[in-house]
Amino acid sequence: MASALPRVVVLAGGISHERDVSLRSGRQVADALKGHGVDVELVDPDSTLIDRLRTDRPDVIWPALHGASGEDGALRGLLEFLGVPFVGARADAARLAWHKPTAKTLAERAGVATPRSITLPRDAFRELGADAVFSAITDELAPPVVVKPAQGGSAQGVTIVEDAAGLPRAMVDAYTYGDVALVEQRITGTEIAVGVIDTGDGAVALPAVEIQPRSGVYSFEARYNAGETRFFTPARIADDVAQRAAEAAVAVHEALGLRHLSRVDLIVDGAGTPWFLEANVLPGLTETSLLPQALEAAGHDLGWVYTALAEAAVRDTQA
Asked: Which cofactors does the annotated protein need, by name (predicted)?
């Protein structure tokens, strides 16, 4: 059956480090919507976008822009200002999730475990002395630790540090993607991702996807190159652990004020405790991405779900 929505514009591409991934996500979304009978246009945003939206207003925008251009809240704020319905988190919630230290704090307040960490701006090393800062980090967070940019996605700028000697280089790599870095105690266990969708009846967790990269690290390459990672859907975890992970994912989704869809990344330790790592307001939607795998494992047709989310976006704007 054709959708009641006359036209959806999928935004994909942009100028972030994740442009190529965004284009792949956008094409997958557009194809799924078209397969469900929706009139879809795939647009690579540029300086003409705002004028275009003013003169040729679509019924709903689907932002498939990964990285800052689609996930830091700026574009979403403009769409809200223009009154154009769009799928996904509103600007304020996107800003909270995009900043990983803030998201960790809100997750912890919601009762979800998250690894011990410290957030450090680049200037801290100059103002306080690099040797003193590195000594303080390693005294309180004994390696292994994970160093990552405080903002960003797709594991870009992320390093697993096995000993103190590797910390300075890891910090430099993280600062390549921003002026603030997060150093987090590494939790050993089963890495999973739990998608959350809400088409209007409340947030529902999808089956957890277990991630097993062949290299041992779920890097940018492992995420987007077929064959580099094995996925198990549902994850090979006990039912009670899967339930706790689902509850944690929904709790984070709601604590951050997200809507329509998200993906919450967790790691389950040997005791069965799910630890929150980060939340994604725009999960990857490529042919190798986790949310589509979870949707299919739950028995959902991608075209139907993506259309339902677009319809929910229109209702939310009209409410």
From this structure: Mg(2+); Mn(2+)
